[in-house]
Automatic annotation (TrEMBL):
Coiled coil: none annotated. The keyword Lipid metabolism applies. It comes from the Bacteria. It holds the Pfam family CMAS. The keyword Isomerase does not apply. One of its GO terms (biological process) is lipid biosynthetic process. Keywords: Lipid metabolism, Methyltransferase, S-adenosyl-L-methionine, Transferase. It comes from Zymomonas mobilis subsp. pomaceae (strain ATCC 29192 / DSM 22645 / JCM 10191 / CCUG 17912 / NBRC 13757 / NCIMB 11200 / NRRL B-4491 / Barker I). GO terms for molecular function: methyltransferase activity. Belongs to the CFA/CMAS family. This is Cyclopropane-fatty-acyl-phospholipid synthase.
Amino acid sequence: MWLLDRFLKKLIRQGQLIIIESNGQRHTYGTVSKNTPITVRFHDPEAPDFVAIHPYMGSGEAYMDGRMTVDDEDILGLIDLILANTVSDRASMLEGGVIPRTIQSMANKFQRLNWKARSKQNVAHHYDLSDKLYHLFLDQDRQYSCGYFTDTHNSLDQAQLDKKIHIASKLALKSGQKILDIGCGWGGMALYLNRVADVDVLGITLSEEQLKVAKKRAEEAGVSDRVKFKLIDYRQVEGRFDRIVSVGMFEHVGPPYYKSFFNHCRDLLADDGVMLLHTIGRLGLPGTTDPWTNKYIFPGGYCPALSEVIGASEHSGLIVSDVETLRLHYMYTINHWYKRVMAAKADIIKLYDARFYRMWTFYLAGASAAFRFGQMCNYQIQYIKKRDSLPLTRDYMFENEAVLKASEY
């Protein structure tokens, strides 16, 4: 316990953390505040040092395995407390601990090598989980990406609809156009664009489970002749498209492949075409994916700094025509997911087991805190090939958005 005790005495300056060892010994860190103290209990004597030596990996695995518990299952409160105290401390225990950063950096570089076969394997690890799991915590349209909150009190379903409206407005769609949706998920974006703009859409995915659902939805909507879905890597797509949209897929491309990704998108995009890339990103400088997330949640995943995206795309000749930073929208989205997962505890344990449930809550809690206190954000980057492909001002976006909202509300 001495190593963890040493960390926490330096770390906790605001809020209060209580640690109870397996022998009952109690330790208190920080100061009394208006917030309820967070109480962590260790259930074997080796667990505290395991967490101290392998900070994020150790805490995640200890929580998953039941070696560490949090009173009231408030894992979100614990991670919020830790990150609130480390937001300005770049040498925080969560980022490095006693594991040399050079080792983690080298490991991350290898893990980002997402060649075709590995990309499919990585996608299957996360997205080919039971369809019932995603039904339990996502919105009705299965949007597994950042919502758009025009009001923080909006429901999850409204925020996800508003996200689709927001993106469609930036695409400046016209009837009869041909659209490519890279990383189409369960088909919600493709079906929406077809419904509101009378366009033909090809959605591509590497998830066999998502493909089944997307195809079924298109058939049920009676538009399978105009909204088609394929199990194919983006590198294998051929043809020309008036619009390209990609939401929540770029995080799986990997920095070594950024230039080829944009080069291929350039070749697929019509001369007067428009592309909209929606991706999780990081504020400030490039970084690394924490080892726990890479191992258990998104193998091969990486959230880029804006400089990495723009630096890669500028080699393709694509013109960056608009950039928007969504700073807190994903935190609000994930908080909805977290609450739904907590409410569905019994169903998730029945579907998998208690360890999986704890893993999933730890993942969502950590993600929420990263968007609130850490470096995470979302970027929406619009690209064109010709500088006169869109109106001179951004007014058309707001006008399109108003029209689409009026048709929905």
